[in-house]
Amino acid sequence: MKHPHAHIRIDFPEGCSVGPGKIALLEAVERTGSLSAAARAMGLSYRRAWLLLHSVNDSFADPSVQLSTGGRDGGGSRLTPFGKALIKAYRQFEKAADALAARQFSAMRARREAGPATAPIRRPLRPRARA
């Protein structure tokens, strides 16, 4: 990463939030066509991925992913048009926030690259307690 980067979480009223993890999960579902494959690809348990996905689906009037249960023909998951729109809106906002962070904090980056102004603080050794 060559410039400061913002990690963005969007908080909606009523406790709903969308951030990098949920968006990455939606993108992984789109890539793999499966919630379990998306969870494996992200290093998440299936339960954690399922909870994250359902929190997004339950937070909006339209679901972001349609889930099909397994069976003889297998299950699957696919993004809805709303899910695709949610990813697009988030990524556009993230890109704008990154550009703002780069402009706003460019002077700080130069100071960071110069290194610390002072030597690290060293804590004095404590005498051992005697038994």
Keywords:
two-stranded antiparallel sheet; extended; 131 residues; mainly alpha; Arc Repressor Mutant, subunit A
Describe, in plain words, how this protein is organized in 3D.
The model has no long low-confidence stretch (mean pLDDT 85). Strand 1 and strand 2 form a beta hairpin. It is extended, with a radius of gyration of 22 Å. Helix content is 50%, strand content 9%. Strands 1-2 form a two-stranded antiparallel ribbon. With 131 residues, it is mainly alpha-helical. Helix 1 packs across helix 2 and helix 2 crosses helix 3. The protein has a domain of 88 residues: Winged helix-like DNA-binding domain superfamily/Winged helix DNA-binding domain (Arc Repressor Mutant, subunit A).
Walk across the major sheet and give the strand order.
1-2
Count of separate DSSP helical elements: 5
Overall strand count:
4
Strand count, sense and barrel status of the largest sheet are: 2 strands, antiparallel
Distance between the termini: 52 Å
Overall radius of gyration: 22 Å
Q: Portion of residues in helices?
A: 40-55%
CATH topology of the domain at 15-102, what is it called?
A: Arc Repressor Mutant, subunit A
Order of helices and strands: EEHHHEEHH
Compose a concise summary of this entry.
The protein has 131 residues and is mainly alpha-helical. Helices cover 50% and strands 9% of the residues. It has 5 helices and 4 strands; from the N terminus they run E-E-H-H-H-E-E-H-H.
